[in-house]
User: Fold this.
Amino acid sequence: MRSLLSILVTLALLNLSSPGPPPGGLPQGVARWARSGQYVEIDGLKVHYLVQGRGSPIVLIHGLGGNIFSWRGNIAALAQEHQVWALDLPGFGSSDKPGNWDYSLAHQAQFVNDFLQHFGIVQATVIGNSMGGGIALELAARFPERVARLVLIDSVAYLQVKIPFWADWLSRTPLAWPLSKFFTPRFGALKKILQGLYAQPDRVSDEVTWGYYYPLSMPGHLQASLAMLRTLRFSISPQRLRQIRQPALLIWGARDRLIPPSQGERLANDLPQARLVLVPDAGHMPNEEQPQAVNRLISQFSRLAKL
Assistant:
């Protein structure tokens, strides 16, 4: 729990200032995902999204600090059989970053529902990693008709994170902006955090790090980060989980040190129609470390669920 808190607070503090892009511009592999999507206004917010493929819809929801780049190893493969929708949630990636927004799992689930409704997506397979899994669970609970099935990748569900007094104070004080100059984000610090989330740290290249670092140069990150500290929590009651009846595939990195596989076992027991699969040699984001294995599991699950 302490390690989780350290990562969450550090990520928040990394967002308190605005670094520039690398001298030569964003790496091509990062710029592709940061700039090649489209924009739509949902609930008064400009949202960056990407859609590829044809077939039954799949919606990808990234985790805390993530963006569409988090699904770079999955979108093309899944789009061979499905219409794949990926979005940068408000506060992340290239989407608007409101400082007066409610970033709770429930409110983000409402936003995703509004996004799907805007595009006429009646029902979809919803896939979420980490925080995105928590949003997917809330979406399934609140709008069951919208969710055909769930794929939860190292999902939050039970985490009780107490924000330290100083962080809570910082999120509410008008001095936050002047104080932000003391929290200079460092590329190397973010790279170390990502390495801690991977089973194999050497898989975190500079390009991967830039995929998570580039949004820090965009307007609004300070205000959005402070709003997250005020409103974002990561737990869902077991009673609520037991009301979710959609078929669910739980994919877990066998070496996840942030949310260990034991949490996946608990979640599989609480969800009425769930199956847990461990991915060897993967940490908290197996969709990034072992994309081929994850894509294969999702494809198999989608075909079985249709029978």
Observations:
- Residues 1-125+164-244 form a domain with the Rossmann fold fold (CATH 3.40.50.1820).
